[in-house]
Amino acid sequence: MRTTTASPAATRYEWQTIRTLIPYLWEFRSRVVFAMLLLVLAKLATVAVPLALKQIVDALDVARQPLLILPLGLLAGYGLLRLASALFGELRDAIFAKVTQRAMRRVALQVFRHLHALALRFHLERQTGGLSRDIERGTRGITFLLSFMLFNILPTLLEIGLVTGILLIYYDVWYALITFITLIVYAAFTFLITEWRMNIVREKNELDSRANTRAIDSLLNYETVKYFGNEDYEARRYDEQMAVLERASVRNQTSLAALNFGQSAIIAVGVTLLMILAAQGVVQGKLTLGDLVLVNAFLIQLFLPLNFLGFVYREIKNSLADMERMFSLLRRETDIQDPPGAPALNVGAGAVRFERVNFGYDADRQILFDVDFEIPPGRKVAVVGPSGAGKSTLSRLLFRFYDVTGGRILINGQDIRGVTQQSLRAAIGIVPQDTVLFNDTIYYNIAYARPDAAHEEIVRAARLAHIHDFIESLPRGYDTVVGERGLKLSGGEKQRVAIARTILKAPRILIFDEATSALDTQSEQAILNALAEVAADHTTLVIAHRLSTVIDADEILVLEQGRIVERGTHRALLAQNAIYARMWALQQEERRRIEQIHQPDTALGHAHG
Question: For residue 291, what are the CA distances in angstroms to 61, 63, 269?
Fold first, then answer.
């Protein structure tokens, strides 16, 4: 067995974690002080129980004196002391419950807020299953750490001090010395072995998060698994993770058994030595039977919580390991931050300008090069181009999910990096290519744009998005639950919910990011009509692959490999007979080919009719 001790950095982090919890204790300091007072009273009552027991045994010791009367007063006092110990302990837990639950709630909320504050880059890289498990274990660890540090370690140390003091004052110095040496050996053994076990515990936690990530990821992609008939493949991959977790869990349990046995052996040796001393004292007439019972009761009373102290120390270390991963999220810097004292955006008429913008997701891979264009108030500008040209990156930059690496983006003459993110995003509405809905009702998903909106406003938004009649045709109407990510709705229905949500938000600036790319021709035309109504008199940026959807734009930009290579109206670009014209010709040819494929089927149907 190779014993490893915690590194100075790990120890420093553990103390830092403990210090972060102090403000939560300070918030309820009166409760904490009262709970600590009850803790002291409970321990005093506990330590007094063996003293009362000694008096009872001595009073009943007929070998020393004839029994004249049953010591009812002593027996009643013994019962009251036990009752007081239990009462004070339960009152302490009840009073402190609000402190632990509030701390857990506050930290969980802090982590939740921080996760939403982190940049899009983090959320594109994160693994949902492992992340949720880390937060769950971390918040549970806070409750354990607060409760057990205050109400198990401190009272046990207090009890050790009281018992050792009584043994030192009333009995031979060897009683106190053996007790003290046993405690030292026990504590040293517990701390050393627990530190060694922490590597095993951390490994088990890591593997547990991985297994949970594998399970969640597979379930989120349920349809994909079914499409390819890969149920057995997914089960094997999950079982591989669980097999590794199983081995780590067995190592964890085996090392725990070794720790428990070592602790029990140390306690057994200490108790045996002290009982031999006490028995010799009784035989020699130096001690009474009551003293023997007192020493035995003290030792049992002392070593039981001491044994529990070993468990508490292990669990505190486990809790710190659990919290380590959760607090590492809080230490992660937010990439996109508001400048100190940033004002709210004055959106005005909503003019948008991309001024010589350069950007790359990574330093060695630039996406946009010197992109320069303007969307005047109330006008519509479309950006078209092949996949990977950087079109959708424009919308992410406008929402300030990322900051430009060169140039600037202006709204109404204000650099968006100099205003608050909240006011910026309040001024922009988007209908994205892939609309993701909450696993809640249609009403909730439309109202998400403005949760305090009146029912009439939500219905009006649905009518404008041409989805009200469809909703009313459903058995549960607006209370229909859409399923995870909105999977119970078709692509067109989800897009119309997204349009209704954007209408309800009532922003000055609109972005349509390939909003019809996943729809059939009939659905596309209906959605386009709805979008045209919504975009009227709004500053609008349309990102599209299908050129037929943007022929009415005031200006069309052709983006290729991150650069604007052409610009102009639909007619002007066709007249140039360059890149846009070739794209238009290819798409028109593809459309005619699709129509020809369907025409024979239609003719055949008429012939048979």
Answer: 12, 15, 20
